[in-house]
Amino acid sequence: MEVSRKIQILKSIDILSFLHEATLERLAEESLEMFLHPKEKLFIEGEEGKTMYIILEGEIRIFKKELDITVMGPGSIFGEMALIENQPRSASAEALGQVELLEIDEEQFQRYFAGQPQVLMALMKTMSARFRRSLGNPVAPIMIEDQIDPLERLDHMEDPVLLVNANTFKIIKGSPPAIDQFGYSQEEISNLSLLDCLVKFDESSLKTIIAPILNQTRSQSSIEAEIKKKNGETMPVEIKIRPTNSNNAVPMIMTWVSDISGKKHIEDTIRQMAYYDPLTGLPNRNLLNDRLAVSLARARRNGEKVAIMFLDLDNFKTINDTLGHDMGDLLLKDVAKKLQHTLRQEDTVARMGGDEFIVVAPEIKSTEDAGILAQKILHQFLDAIVIENQELFVGCSIGISTFPEDGTDSKTLLKNADMALYRAKDRGKNNFQLYTPALNFKAMERMAIEKNLRKAVEREEFDLVFQPKVELATGKIVGLEGLLRWDSPELGRVMPVAFIPVAEDTRIIIQIGSWTIRRACQQIREWIDAGLPPVSIAINLSGVQFAHPQLLKEIRKSLHEFDVSPDYLQLEITETILMKDTDLAADILRQLEELGIKAAIDDFGTGYSSLNYLKNLPIHYLKIDRTFVRDYSQGTNSAITKTIVGLGQSLGLKTIAEGIESEEQKQFLLEIGCEEGQGYLFSPPVSSKEVTGLLIEKKTY
């Protein structure tokens, strides 16, 4: 069936009418389409129920032990009760003719049904109505002859029914099923009042319900309540009340008492799914919004403050990727318990998804109180968290906004807390930051960069400039470093330090990185075609791009497209990136070496790599960070620079110094054995046209 036709059917279903058409389209595309032949069974009673279904065409017969329950046609939803309750199927289903269905699994149910409050409530009402129908209609009008005594009728009733004095509510008699249900003997139950059997129900309320029946303005009434059995257990029931239609001097009523435990269980399950995170049991976004609204309303009335904290775990992604999602889930559960243990009883902590949590702390006296609470939370992450005998070290970054100083509505307060969280992460993580208006400017600046960055990729607003790498002993140009530049029509020249972090966070860096590699290969080909001596170009890789599974494919594609030897393309990766996942880094570097690509460790000396690790890595260059070159005359930096050069020599690696700006720096580097360098002493980054001139001139420095 065409997707458009499926969407048309889905739109006709009442409970799905709250979803946008784009959401319905995703549901139609993601769901498994099934076809059944006549008499083919979809499922049988007692089978595990992990899916629900939507009928697109044809009819499905629902039956139990060959007893027909109902027939469902196009647009019908069924099978959801077993899915929600995680129970076996309570009936069987088979096709009447050719049938086409959509199968909805647990993940899709969570996303499109449980995750949509309006859809979930509509589904709950549908299920509730279905459950009521399944109870039958024990109180349908029964034409009974006046001369038949109600006491005699009770003896033959198959439902739990009580005959009650309408004035005193004393129970006169119970049907055999009612005696079994309550656990009393006939004599014992006849000594009780209906109020004795009801939990939290007063005489006034009961009289109000019964009055319309006695004055004949209504033929029946019904209530939902809890009854108390003889053994002390309680049970949710629906009680339907009718007059006896007898001529007794004392007015009497008949009460049908139906067990609705199953219905209540379904409602509780759906409520749990609607308002609580299934993994941690914490409130989810829906319940958080409710509680935050209540806290803000109370704070307005009483002139109080409310703190909103946005929490994000540091290093969670590394743990999740390295040790697996099961370990990640166990860690999130443990963190949830830590947060609940740390917070006050009146505070709410909710999980927003992933490793993000939000805390609502009402009735705080000052912003300082919010800071104290945040410090208590951070303290919980000082020690390792032990899960399945493994020590896991995670930190926590927290952003805080306060009502009414930082906003007077939920949306603004959450947005400002999120901005403060970004500030905390920029400050080195494992800390908290308070919202300040200055963050708004930075956030707007970031949004403008992100918005224009997406356009920049499409419009190819980027360019590469090149800084020569020079052999220090001869002054010859031995290579180039390709540096990315962005000239935005809206923002002007945007420096990499401003846009690269945004590109990494949004993963636009993958597209930018692919463009950079392709442009470098294209430029190498242009110089070769111009008859110039081949020169290598080194490209910087971000952490996101380095770990991307398509990296090698993109490199091969660009080398092949422009017929460039891999000898002329080099990649620079920072020490910090390599140390994030040493095994993955080693594997990627080996694959690059097999391809013929040489790699350099950029900014060497600023990270924490070990000699034992370095000697096993397939790298070819160590780039000395510019800070050591700039302050080479200081004792510590001089010693570090000498150590790096000595390390390179012992491992058979070339050393390249960055940021050379003076003849003295160059001489120092030559004396200690550094082979290559780059910096403004030789040349600033220049355009490809200027590099062409340098190559033609065979420029030496």
Q: What composes the largest sheet?
A: 8 strands, mixed, barrel
The CATH architecture name of the largest domain reads Alpha-Beta Barrel
The helix/strand class is: alpha+beta
What quaternary form is this? single chain
Radius of gyration: 37 Å
Number of strands: 27
Distance between the termini: 71 Å
Any idea how many domains? 4
CATH class descriptor name of the largest domain: Alpha Beta
Number of helices: 28
Sheet-strand content, in percent, reads 15-25%
The CATH superfamily label of the largest domain reads: EAL domain
Strand arrangement within the widest β-sheet reads 19-20-22-23-24-25-26-27
Low-confidence stretches: 134-148
Globular, elongated, flat, extended or rod-shaped: what is the shape? elongated
**Which fold does the CATH topology of the largest domain refer to?**
TIM Barrel
- Helical percentage: 40-55%
Q: Average pLDDT, to the nearest integer?
A: 86
